Amino acid sequence: MNIHEYQAKKLLSQFDLPILQGKVFLEKISKSTLNIKKFNGPPWVIKAQIHAGGRGAGYFKTTFNDKGGVQIVENEDQLIKITNLMFDNILITKQTGEEGKKVKRILIEEGCKIKREFYLSLIIDRNTSQLMLMISDQGGVDIESVAEKNPEKIHTVHFSNLNNIVLDKNLQTKLDIDLKQFQDLTIIITRLLKAFKSLDASSIEINPLVLNHENNFILLDAKITLDDNSLFRHPELIELRDFSEENSLELQASEKDMNYVKLNGSIGCMVNGAGLAMATMDMIKLHGKEPANFLDLGGTANKERAIEGFKIIQSDPNVKSVLINIFGGIIHCDMIANGIVEAVKELNFKLPLVVRFQGTKADEGKNIINQSSGNIVSIDDFNEATKKVVELAI
Ligand code: GDP
Ligand code: MN
């Protein structure tokens, strides 16, 4: 689960991490709702809150100046004016795609004079099963371009013992910081690791972590991804979920415990099992088309799930044909076949369907499909089935 920058900062400040004073607004502001006396500044920084990075370098659909979703202002009138121009506007960044994201929450923060910008992130390195720090003195810009142009500028550190964080002195040299800064950085990293663990995060990214003119580190941006599988331990974190930021079809699927990811192709897929779903997408690509989605119906695939799956696939206008690929294990293919036939009737599903059954009661399932009247065929062979569904996508 992703959360907003202002929510991440609030969480991190509880771990004694250096965050600037700020306040989030959920609607347009006026002199009285702003109450400027409560803010350190000028300058102030206006930060559009969307679940996507690259806001600073982004642009607004309804243009009002040549700046993006992070703007520095020097007086109260500008602060109110720009904030209100950002509200309900669409912010387009490298990470949002062309359609952009509507700005519904805005963080106003005290400004900060930046001397140096660093990149810092914590993730779990699955190869070593350890927490890993990535740090660079080339912060502020997107880290992908640093990784591409100056990979030697990104340093990694693994932690085997979270109770005793010792950073190698080499890191001080690599980052070109003095001893006091190195000690401060060690404290920040120790606290971030503590936050990572107690929030059950799956990643924390601070870009930039800055040194200000008083020689203090400040977390100027913060992105936290929480591990969905541990949210049951954190009722207070579940509340931070912003449904308006999530794809509505993906949301609909997750409410039914199905895994759906929208993609941009034209072949809808409905599969049981994540591995088979991945293989199905690969096969579609191999035959020259793109999958419209990833959809894992889960182990308990039945009629109700088939109906939900069809509904979701049907609401994507890009879909031209659908491949249903089922491996009958605990579930029986004949049961699924009946479910598919009924779902097609119930929803009046018109798109061409190719069904492939393997495993338990595959033959019985095939017969049911072949006897049904809809725009639906059953093909045993994975390769042939994919070929057919690609042909039908016109
Ligand atoms: P992102 O573009 O979505 O990653 O948003 P950030 O919060 O990282 O802001 C983008 C950039 O704006 C940062 O890298 C900083 O260079 C700059 N910025 C953000 N806050 C301040 C501030 O208080 N003062 C100054 N001078 N620059 C800031
Ligand atoms: Mn950033």
Note down, in words, how this protein is organized.
By secondary structure, the protein is α+β, with helices and mostly antiparallel strands. It is 33% helix and 25% strand. The chain has 13 helices and 19 strands. The chain has helices spanning 5-13, 31-34, 76-86, 143-149, 170-175, 179-199, 235-238, 248-255, 274-286, 303-314, 333-347, 362-371, 382-392; strands at 22-25, 44-48, 59-60, 70-73, 90-92, 101-102, 106-110, 114-125, 130-136, 154-159, 201-212, 217-219, 223-226, 259-262, 267-271, 293-296, 321-328, 353-359, 376-378. A hairpin with an 8-residue loop joins strand 5 (90-92) and strand 6. Helix 10 (303-314) crosses helix 11 and helix 11 (333-347) packs parallel to helix 12 (362-371). It is elongated, with a radius of gyration of 26 Å. Manganese (II) ion is lined by residues 53, 207, 221.
Query: Over all CA atoms, what is the radius of gyration?
Result: 26 Å
Number of strands: 19
Biggest β-sheet, characterized?
A: 6 strands, antiparallel
How far apart the termini lie comes to 36 Å
- Unreliable stretches, pLDDT < 50, 5 or more residues? none
What's the total helix number? 13
Shape: elongated
Strand content: 25-35%
Mean pLDDT: 94
Distinct ligand kinds:
guanosine-5'-diphosphate, manganese (II) ion
Report the helical percentage: 25-40%
The assigned structural class equals alpha+beta
SSE topology sketch:
Elements: H1 5-13, E1 22-25, H2 31-34, E2 44-48, E3 59-60, E4 70-73, H3 76-86, E5 90-92, E6 101-102, E7 106-110, E8 114-125, E9 130-136, H4 143-149, E10 154-159, H5 170-175, H6 179-199, E11 201-212, E12 217-219, E13 223-226, H7 235-238, H8 248-255, E14 259-262, E15 267-271, H9 274-286, E16 293-296, H10 303-314, E17 321-328, H11 333-347, E18 353-359, H12 362-371, E19 376-378, H13 382-392
Parallel strand pairs: 15-17, 17-18, 18-19
Antiparallel strand pairs: 1-7, 2-4, 2-7, 3-5, 5-6, 8-9, 8-11, 9-10, 11-12, 11-13, 14-16
Helix pairs in contact: 10-11, 11-12
Bound molecules: guanosine-5'-diphosphate (GDP) and manganese (II) ion.
Manganese (II) ion binds next to loops.
